Amino acid sequence: MGLFKGLTASKERQKAKAFYEKALHLTGNPREIRRIKAIIGNRTKAFFDMTFVEGAKKTEAHQQAVLEASATGKPEPEPPFSSAYKQVKTLSGTIWVYIPQQVTNQIFDLGSKYQLELVTKGQALEVGQSIADDLTNTLELDHPIEALAFLAESNATIAIDPGETDSSENDDQIDDSEKQAE
Fold first, then answer.
1. CB of 181 within 8 A of CB of 108?
2. Residues with Cβ < 8 Å from 48, sequence gap 6 or more?
3. Which pTM value belongs to this model?
4. Which of 16, 31, 121, 131 is buried deepest, with most CB atoms within 10 A?
5. How would you write the pLDDT of the chain (182 residues) with one tens digit per residue?
6. Which residues pair with residue 86 across a beta bridge?
7. CA atoms in the 13 A half-sphere facing the CB of 180
8. Facing residues of 89 across strands?
9. Cβ-count burial of 60 within 10 angstroms (0-12 exposed, 13-18 middle, 19+ buried)?
């Protein structure tokens, strides 16, 4: 049964990438183009926020694992990584979303740096918005992606619940080709 779940996820990931690529080259009915741009914009914003939080959470877990490894004399764990594919909850259910690996890495690294306190909240918002603006321009969206709105509204750092699970259950099955895309 696990084999079929993996095949389904793989097909859904292919659909997500195809949808992203379709959004780059839209032609035809202006109403349909606006609809697709709105959909990709909303999905991209959700992906962006999830990846930032994932960067912070995985960095914290990695820091703890490094401390435990050094205390027990074990080798250091591999640094954390984020997939270019994420499952995003929408009104109609959960859907796979794709953003190119290079952009995913930028967002993930920003979340990581924020967690490590290498960037301030203001710097994270500024850099995040710059990345979001690039995505908005690449996708030629009608409405700009507002990056990290949750961070702008909060007065605290990202709350991390150790019982929470990651949005992507298949991080261990990520292609080496995705890692190479950095």
1. no
2. 99, 107, 128, 131, 132, 135, 145, 147, 148
3. 0.80
4. 16
5. 455 566 778 899 999 999 999 999 999 999 999 999 999 999 999 999 999 999 999 999 999 999 999 899 899 999 999 999 999 998 889 999 999 999 999 999 999 999 999 999 999 999 999 999 999 999 999 999 999 999 988 764 454 443 333 333 333 333 333 333 33
6. 97
7. 3
8. 94
9. middle
